[in-house]
Amino acid sequence: MNKFASGLTLPEKAPRTTLKSEILWGCELGGSPHFPKDLAGVHDRFYASAPRPLETFRRAVMDAVERVLIMDDYFLMPDKGEPAERLWTVLDWLHPRLAASDIRILTKKHAEIDEELLQLFRDREEEINNQARRGKRCSIQVNTRLREGFNYVHDRFAIVDDELWHFGATVGGFHASVNAASRGWSAADAGAIEFFDLAWQMCKEK
Question: pTM surpassing 0.85?
Answer without folding.
Answer: yes
